[in-house]
Each structure stands twice: as C-alpha cells, then as structure tokens.
Design a protein that fits this description.
alpha/beta, six-stranded parallel β-sheet, about 40% helix
Length: about 725
C-alpha cells in the first residue's frame, strides 16, 4: 500500500462545505503541464484517496495529446480493456477509458468475456501484446476473472523468475514488487513479459481489498479517468486508489476500435456493432442515496475525502461538454454508414437524465439537427411530476428528442420506499409523473423491486444501529408478514393511475443485496441473507439474492416478476395478480395460460385501443388464424392450445399479433435446440418486444412478414 501522507498547503483555506449545483469544473490551463501526484491521503486499512483538484485534471484532451507528443514522443501505452459479455448494452466504461488511451497517444484493445470463454484472453494477449491489462468488474461476475488472473500471474512469475512457482501469493507478491520497481510493465528487452493488472468497476466500490488480494496490481475505486492517466504515466506504485469525485472530463469515446474488436473477438457481442441501440453518456454522478445502489455511498465518500482539505471539487452531478456528446453522436452516424446500420435510438447511461434542463435545451436543437436520433432516458418521479415536470417533458417531447422514459418506483409502499430504500417521493408524486409522461404520449417503463426484505428480522436486531430499517422515528413498525403483499402495492400503484397504456412496460427486478450497500448490510444483519449473495446480483428475474423465503414464496416471486407487465395493463391488475400467484403452486406457462383464459370475464383493461405498433388493433380472429398458420404440425398442437388460451394476453399487450409472431419464432428455435419453451422464455420475448418499441425498433419477423403484411393490406 502507498504510504503517502496528506500534505495540506498552509496558504490554502479549509473548505468545509460540499459543492452545490452549478459549481463548475474549471481548469484554465486545460490540462496539467507537469507529471506529478495529486494531493493524496492514506486511509489506513482501506485505500489511498487521490484528491484531484481542477488544476490536476485534463479537460482539453486534444491539447493534452499534443503536449504528450512533444514532451513524451515515445510514450504509446498499449492497454487491453476487458469487461463482461453479460449485458445487452454496449460497455461505455471501456469505450471511455479507451478514449483516454487515444488522447494519450496510446493504443486500446477490447474484449468482453464470460465464464465460458475467459481463456480466450490468452490468445488475445499473444496477438496484441498489451503492456497493461484492465478489468471492469461487476459484482457477481468475478470468480472466473480472478481464476484467470491467478493462473496468469503464476505462469508469468514462473517464466520471469525461471522457477516452478505454484503458489499464487508468492507469484502475486513477486510481480507487484517488480511492477513497483519498474513503475509499470515488465520487459525483457523490447518484449513485454508481464502486463500489470488494473481492476476497476462497480465491484470495487465495496470489495476493493478482494480485488487487490486476488491479483490486481492497481485497484481503482471511482470513475478512474484521472487515475488511469496517472497510472499509465508511472506516477503510482501498486496499491488501492480511490478517486472520490466523478469529474465529467471523459474525452470522446473510442467507439470505432471497440466495435472493431467486438466484431473480431466476441461472437456474442458482435451485436453491438449491428445493434440499432447505441449508448451515450450525458452526465456523471448522482445526488441521491438509494440504499440498494452500489453508488449510494458517493456523497458520504465525498464528505469524508474532501472536507477540510482545502480543495473544493465541482458539483456532485457534472454534465459532459455538449460538443463532446455531439461528436460521439456523429461517430455513431459515421459507423452506422460503415457497417450498414441505422441506429434508431441512443440510450443515455447517465444515472439521472434531465437533471439540468439548460444543458438539455442547448443540446436538443443541435442534436436533432446534426444527429437526428432520439434518446432513451432515465428520470426520477420527482423530476417528471408537477408543473416543472410538465415543462421538462414538453421540452423533450416537442423536439422529438426522446423515444421513451424509464422511471424507477421500486415500491408502492411510501414507508418502504422512504425507510428501507431511502427514496422520498410519495405516491401522489409517482402518479402525477405517470400522468405527465403519458399526457405527451411518451412510452414509459416503470421499474420495481420484487422480494425486498420487508418482514420482521429473524434475529435480534437494533434498528437504531442501521442506516435503514422499517421502524420509523416514532418507533412504529412497518413490516409485512407476506412480502408479496408489498410487491402487489407497487403493481396497484401503477394500475390505479389509469394512465398506463398498451405501449408502456412494467419491469421488475428480484432483489439481490449488493455487499456494502446500506440495504445489503441490513439484509445480512437482520437475518434475511446468509452466505454468498453477490453471485446472484445479476439474476434479476430468476432467483432471489435473499435466502429467507420459503420455496413457495420464492416461486411466487419469480412468477410475479415474469407476468407483472401483463397484469399492469388492467385497472384490477392487483386483484388479478393476487388470484394468479395465490391460487396455484405450479405457476408455469400452462397454468398462466389457463388463468388468462379463465379470467376473461374479469379483465378490466386500462387502455383498449392503440395508435402505435405495426398492427395496432387486432381481433381474436386475427390471432386464431395466425395460430392455425404458425402451428400446423402435430408436434406443435400443445403449444398452439397454450397460445389460444393466451388470446387476451396478446389482445391487451402492445402490438399483440406481432408479439405472437415473435413468440412463435422463439418457440421453434427452442424446439430446434431441443429445449422446452417456458414462462421465462415468454417473458424474455415480451420484454424485448416492448424494448423494441421504446427504442423505435419495431419489426415483423421475416418468417411471418408476408403473412402479417397480408393482414395489414386486407389481402390486397
């Protein structure tokens, strides 16, 4: 660990207040001319705070690139950036870090890998000969990475020391000492014999020590833009480093090389190149402290790191320069032309969009004139409610700037939302936000969490010692005997708004506690989770990260998650869902189909018509004819009958006939692979179908395009 101690210049006044909204990141020089460490502070037993002041950061990346060309003409760091292949959304973290490499006259290569193909790294390293290897780690997706690092370090240490080393700790210590001495990569002549390991990502927010002990030479906590620059310059020795402030100084992303490498190395992620959804980043930072989120501690970290140090960082939320975002939009258009793709929407991966409407208003006209691709954004209910919410939505709607909005509700119980989740919007605000969004016809996705730890703790527990609990200030308890009742409240909140239309999507995630978050700690301390929870962090729709539920409750939670979008489109959706999950134990696709059929007379739809979609308003006859057409073989009779029982499922969901065709495609593909088609498969197709609409990517499956077109044209 770096033993550097903090040194506060005596002539700098102490700054005890947190930055406020509007405080800007300023560096009149544009970039540091000298290569020196920022102010650092050793947090004993944890990490070293790297307290970057505005003068220490680079905002003029083009100027910095020219500067490096002059003062370090032979400096061309080669870095292999590695992430997980589990996401359907392109990895902007790696592209951002690659942008840093480009502006340091360096070379970036990329790989997205999973547990099944992690050893592909060996060949990529052989081909590309990187000087550094950087990993972007997600919680729950680390074991196979650490196993590879262990093998890599043992093999490299054995090769360099010409010894048969079998112990990882020995190899790890030896290599870290060599990296410390060399201030970077280990060479044999001009040949790289060891590329130091840099580990960053969400996982390091709380598990940074594990990353260091399991092989990271440099472990980065925080955004890492400034740290990556200075690590590559050889300013830091191996250790754990924390950059507490999310400066928005990300340069233009390296989208071109990222796409090229994805196409070359990863079959699974070639789709990024040809996807009609691309990603951008409008801002960094989040001013909220949601207890379940891995960045919930950011504000506390900021207070701890900067107060009394004589440095006032910029505001907690920082907008990226508009010209940089516009340039990335032009990159998307240029690469679309090269690969023969037409991007339909860009997903803004900012934690909170629309935070600064001055920025969005300035961007809006320029973006739609120069780029012309709508955004898909994420916003809080409070930002969309009331008169100000109407102004926000009107501004983006009038410009056709947004294709859809995602809004997290998480719980329908105000007490749970406030006390357990540290979210303070009441239900009236949520309803008003839904009403406002729908008054402008913008497709809406609401987000909810199923399976929260809302029961009374099963072990002795003092709420006063926890950051969160379901005991309020007056000592009143807000526990549930049945956790499903809490989930039903959120569904009811959306249904009772009466504004949820066919095009809108109700999405759930089954709760998994992220280690170190306030809610994650509470889940363990209160006896709701034992043992490993991190491995289940990204299961979402298939398994709870808590192990306090009975098998039946766990089964009901999964069924709730897989079917809630259907029930959300009925005024009596709560009662329908309640009947479904409590009236049987199987809760599989066949049971769901029978329930939908048997409940036909009970359905009270919120919105019975649709103006969107490829075939917006269909009849039962249209669907029955399609089932007869699609499922003509004897082996498909059973699935055909299931679809007939699901008639109301298709009638009351968005563009139901096209959805039925997509499900037919998925069914026949599963048959080819000798797999069964279950409720989870139905959910997956339905979810992607709704995303297609939000991202303006509606399509007819080629296999049934002629048949469906014939319906539209009336056979003409």
């Amino acid at each position: 660990m770096n033993k550097t101690k903090i040194a506060i210049p005596s002539d700098i006044p102490k700054e005890n207040s947190l930055p406020k909204r509007g405080d800007e990141l300023t560096n009149l020089e544009g970039y540091p001319k000298n290569f020196e460490l920022p102010l650092t502070e050793n947090i004993s037993g944890k990490y070293i705070n790297t307290l970057y002041a505005p003068k220490d950061i680079t905002i003029d990346w083009n100027g910095y690139k020219k500067h490096l060309s002059i003062v370090k003409p032979n400096f061309h760091p080669k870095v292999l950036l590695v992430g997980h292949d589990s996401s359907e959304i392109e990895n902007i973290t790696l592209m951002s870090l690659g942008g840093v490499l480009q502006h340091m006259n360096g070379i970036a290569n990329y790989a997205l890998l999973g547990s099944n193909n992690i050893n592909t790294l060996d060949q990529i390293i052989k081909n590309k000969q990187p000087e550094w290897i950087g990993f972007n780690l997600y919680t729950g997706l680390t074991d196979f990475v650490f196993e590879w690092i262990k093998r890599y370090k043992i093999e490299r240490a054995s090769h360099i020391l010409k010894q048969n080393i079998v112990d990882f700790d020995t190899a790890d210590k030896a290599l870290k000492n060599m990296v410390r001495e060399a201030k970077g990569p280990i060479y044999d002549g001009n040949q790289v014999v060891y590329a130091p390991i840099i580990i960053g990502g969400h996982f390091n927010n709380y598990s940074f020590n594990e990353s260091f002990c399991k092989g990271g030479d440099y472990v980065v906590r925080g955004k890492g833009i400034n740290l990556l620059r200075d690590i590559l310059l050889g300013l830091f020795e191996p250790g754990i480093y924390h950059d507490p402030m999310p400066y928005a100084n990300i340069p233009r992303m390296d989208r071109e090389v990222f796409y090229k490498d994805m196409y070359e190395y990863s079959d699974k992620t070639k789709g990024y190149v040809f996807s009609r959804i691309k990603s951008v980043l409008s801002a960094l930072g989040c001013s909220y402290t949601c207890s379940y989120c891995y960045i919930s501690s950011m504000i506390d970290n900021l207070k701890e790191a900067y107060q009394g140090k004589g440095i006032k960082p910029p505001s907690i939320i920082q907008d990226r320069p508009i010209n940089t975002v516009l340039a990335e939009g032009k990159d998307i258009l240029r690469l679309d032309k090269y690969y023969g793709v037409k991007t339909a929407a860009v997903f803004d991966q900012a934690d909170i969009s629309l935070n600064n409407m001055e920025w969005w208003n300035e961007l809006g006209d320029k973006w739609m004139t120069d780029i012309g691709i709508p955004f898909y954004i994420q916003a809080r209910p409070a930002m969309l409610a009331g008169k100000n919410g109407i102004k926000r939505i009107e501004s983006i709607s009038n410009r056709r700037l947004v294709s859809g909005i995602s809004m997290a509700i998480e719980s329908g119980d105000q007490n749970v939302r406030k006390l357990l989740l540290d979210r303070h919007e009441n239900n009236n605000i949520v309803k008003d936000a839904i009403k406002n969004v729908k008054s402008f016809g913008v497709p809406l996705r609401t987000q909810a969490i199923v399976g929260l730890p809302v029961m009374k703790p099963s072990v002795p527990f003092n709420p006063a010692n926890s950051k969160v609990s379901l005991v309020d200030k007056e000592g009143k308890e807000h526990y549930y005997e049945d956790p499903l009742q809490e989930s039903l409240k959120c569904l009811d909140l959306v249904c009772s708004s009466y504004f949820f239309s066919k095009e809108d999507y109700y999405w759930n995630a089954i709760y998994s506690p992220f280690p170190g978050t306030p809610l994650g700690d509470y889940s363990i301390e209160a006896g709701f989770a034992k043992g490993d929870t991190a491995s289940k962090a990204y299961l979402f729709s298939t398994e709870s990260g808590l192990n306090c539920f009975s098998d039946l409750i766990a089964k009901r939670q999964v069924a709730f998650s897989l079917t809630s979008n259907f029930f959300s489109h009925f005024k009596n959706g709560k009662n329908l869902m309640s009947s479904f999950i409590y009236s049987g134990n199987e809760l599989d696709l066949e049971y769901f189909a029978r329930f939908v059929s048997d409940s036909s007379s009970l359905l009270q739809p919120i919105d019975q018509t649709s103006t969107g979609g490829l075939i917006p308003n269909i009849t039962k006859e249209n669907l029955e004819d399609f089932f007869d057409y699609a499922y003509r073989n004897e082996v498909d009779i059973k699935f055909k009958e299931i679809n007939k029982r699901l008639l109301n499922y298709y009638l009351y969901l968005f563009d139901g006939l096209v959805l039925a065709a997509k499900i037919a495609i998925a069914y026949f593909k599963s048959q080819e692979n000798q797999n069964s088609f279950n409720l989870s498969n139905l959910y997956r197709v339905e979810r992607n179908h709704y995303y297609d609409n939000c991202y303006r990517m509606n399509y007819m499956p080629k296999k049934y395009a002629d048949y469906l077109t014939n319906i539209i044209t009336g056979g003409n």
